[in-house]
User: What shape does this take?
Amino acid sequence: MPLLILDRDGVINLDSDDYIRSLDDWIPVPGSIEAIAALARAGYQIAVATNQSGLSRGYFTLDDMEAIHSRLGELVEELGGSIAGVFYCPHLPDEGCNCRKPATGLLEAIEAELGQSVAGCYFIGDSLKDLQAARAMACEPVLVLTGKGQKTRDQLSARDVDLANPGDIPVYPDLAGAASAILSRTG
Assistant: This one.
């Protein structure tokens, strides 16, 4: 079963500069839940890799975050799909951990937990950090324009980034568009 990795905020759900603090704040991007379910039904094992420094900042609790992830799983299951796991970094940007993207600790945890290499798998994200983590672990990065995606595309276009071959990263309007393209290649 091929692995596919998703960022959360800005890819699966709408992002906020004030953080997604509760289930009430968590609003799926239109079409994202359906896209995840379609990918899972097509045989992809779905993992989510997300930076969640709001935990360390005290903006929300572990129970708040788990409620969001539980609801995400329920919505995907209602459409016949599943999520293999949600992997998160709770640390602040300056803590120097190895799990906060663009570091690769979350991807290494996915490999250990799911028992397969992430090399060659799709990693769909909206930020430069997602793309950098993907490249560092030999994933196939995919950029969506929701969330921080447009800003990230502008950075890539300006070549003002530390990322090998940014021009060969496919760009889609949203997760639904990326999923459709991936499914048309593997269908």
Notes: The mean pLDDT is 94. The longest strand covers residues 45-51. The CA atoms of residues 50 and 88 lie 5 Å apart. The helical segments are 32-41, 54-57, 62-78, 105-114, 128-136, 149-157, 175-186.
